[in-house]
Amino acid sequence: MDEIARDYTADLLGSSSLAALLTALVSLVLVANRGTWPLLRNVITIAHEGGHAVIALLSGRKLNGIRLHSDTSGLTVSTGKPTGPGMVFTLIAGYPAVPLLGLGGAWLVAADRAQLMLWISIGLLVLMLLAIRNAYGALSVLITGGALFAVSWYAPPAWQAVCCALVSWFLLIGGLRPLGELRSKRARGRAPDSDADQLARLTGLPGTAWLLLWLLVGLASLLVGGALLLQMPQL
Question: Where does the sequence pass through the membrane (predicted)?
Answer without folding.
Answer: 12-32, 88-110, 116-132, 159-180, 209-230
